[in-house]
Amino acid sequence: MATYDFIFDGLGLRDWCGDGEKSGGPMSMADLLGETSGQKVEVSAWDTPFPSLDNLHDACNAIPQSRDLTSGLERGFLDIKDSLKIVVDPLTQPLSWALNEMLWVMQALPWWIMIPLLMLIAYAVGRSMKLVALVAVCFGFLAFVDYYDYTMQTLAIIFVCAFICVLFGVPIGIAMSRSDRVQRMMIPILDMLQTLPPFVYLIPLIFLFSVTEPKLYGIAIILYAIVPVIRLTDLGIRLVDRDVIEAADAFGMTKRQKLFGVQIPLALPNIMAGVNQTIMMSLAMVVIASLVSAPGLGVLVLRGIRSLELGVGLLSGLGIVLLAIILDRVTKAALARINASQK
Amino acid sequence: MSDEIKIKIRNLYKIFGDKPQMALAYVRNGMGKTELLAEHNHVLGLNNINVDMPAGKTTVIMGLSGSGKSTLIRHLNRLIDPSAGEVLVNGDDILSYNDKQLRDLRQHHMSMVFQKFALFPHRTVLENAGLAPSIEGMGKGKYQKDARKWLARVGLEGQDDQYPHQLSGGMQQRVGIARALTSNSDIMLMDEAFSALDPLIRTDMQNLLIELQAELAKTVVFITHDLDESLKLADHLVILKDGFVVQQGEPQHILLNPADPYIEAFVSDINRARVLRVRSVMRQTTEAMGEISGEVDHDANLESLIERSGGDTTNRYRVMKGGQQVGILEMTDLVRSLVPRGGSSDPDAARRAG
Prior knowledge:
The complex is a heterodimer of chains A (343) and B (354). Chain A has 343 residues and is an all-alpha fold. Chain A is built from 15 helices and no strands. In chain A, 78% of the residues lie in helices and 0% in strands. Chain A is extended, with a radius of gyration of 28 Å. The mean pLDDT of chain A is 88. Chain B is of the alpha/beta class. Chain B folds into two domains: 245 residues, Rossmann fold (3-Layer(aba) Sandwich), CATH 3.40.50; 82 residues, Alpha-Beta Complex (CBS domain Like), CATH 3.90.1280. Chain B has 18 helices and 14 strands. In chain B, strands 6-7-8-3-9-10 form a six-stranded mixed sheet, with helices on both faces. In chain B, helix 7 packs across helix 8. Chain B starts with a strand and ends with a helix. The chains are: A mainly alpha (343), B alpha/beta (354). The interface between A and B is medium-sized, with 19 and 27 residues. Chain A: Keywords: Cell membrane, Membrane, Transmembrane, Transmembrane helix, Transport. Chain A: GO terms for molecular function: amine transmembrane transporter activity; carnitine transmembrane transporter activity. Chain A: Pfam families: BPD_transp_1 (PF00528). Chain A: One of its GO terms (cellular component) is ATP-binding cassette (ABC) transporter complex. Chain A: Belongs to the binding-protein-dependent transport system permease family.
């Protein structure tokens, strides 16, 4: 009846297949047509179907259909969900707190403290008055069009997530640079995090946490944005001049002294480049994360899409661009200062 | 000449590859470097090295690139561990050292100067010079006096707050030497320390090292591929080729008695008049002989004597050492010694030079 009957007949697996035709799921359209017309469906060699799960299922009921696979995955995830939650929930709780606190602080402070404070940070990092002026103009504009609160929310989320990325990313990068085995293990994970569409890891996260919890989007952002800082820390430390490391060894430095006295300072330009990338990627992700209740400018973008408010969408998009420019320029200025002091 | 031995290297082998111990067995059975590489894919780095390095003297290890000289010097402070053999420093087998002892050795007893300087680019000149004390946890306030002293000694005053990249190559290497001196170690390893410098600056640095050496009498192990440099600096010269010692001894002796064609080819290009000393070509005698044109110190080089004699080959000089006559030098002997083969074919000269 089905194309691949011959395999199971040939191998004598007919019994194993159970042959319980009754348990078969919905038939294919072709089968249905064939049944109603009382004729056997003839499949020409040209139309031979790929031996996929569904096609093999037609020949043998013991083979699952592909929708069994996806529902199996789902069931599997739901089964481990509760036990996973027991472990992951308390571990990630501080993230929720940090995000809540930061959101609260940045919105509670009045604008006439917040904007000068941000200007001061820009000066401290970049030592350039031009940069400070850029920060003032951008935030002034965003506040002028009444997007101040949204901007602060976005910024608060980025600050927290980027900080946590650096907090975990740099040590992971160091571990990778010290051991080829760790590096070999980490690279596929990093590749996966980088290539997986961001929406894809939002899905299991929604199952795992409630949508009201900030850590839901926090984790999504961190997973997406942590990759560059890990990669560039690893690269930076591996690129440190081997002669200098040899000199450190020859003068009897301990591993610790080498790490903090030589490797990290010399890898700093690369690490800062990673931090810059991480901040930019968390900004990209914070927009997507508004799908799962992340506050900020992303919400406005989403509103623009959902209710076709073109103006809101465009203006909030511009706001994100301005934020991106500021964050990029400020971190690049910091990077340039490090580079200048190290040649 | 050599009284106390500071560093002893005994039957040292180094083989690079996956299974050095297996390859070691082949090498001990007489397999050469090329065969080992072709048949077993292992690189023979060092082949049965035995060297005694006298205390307070300069030992120069010379060889062309790939001869294993940089590998050898890295065995002395165990930046590389050998496949077999012993390295004894002050009679202690450093291969048995644990991490802590090894760090102590590197911090207090051996310092190193590198071909590419290897200064810390993120630290100032002063901080670089004070590397060794800072590793021990000493603050800048404590070590800066010492570091400044040595920086001044190598001719780098007032550059304390510069960064290495602001200095020229010669100045960077001076920082490298100051860094080694500040550690107050009695052994200094110099890995092609002057090879990356311009010829004139190199000469300056060689003179600086000779000066320092006269003053401090450290045990210096100096690596070079430059025969002129090695003859200028060496008290004890070790010539490496393909990982084994072709010849070692006093430089004058090697120059006059090259052990094999490889060294002969090496030494044939040398300005012998400048390198050879009167004591190496004189005839040893305390008797006064015939007509004497003048007195000459036993350590003077031949060039100065040729200049003094005005090229007159009939002259004869009395060779003095500490006010005593130790020998007689015929100008004809001197001239003969300037020709590579002629000089070395005289068996007496060899004995006297030794």
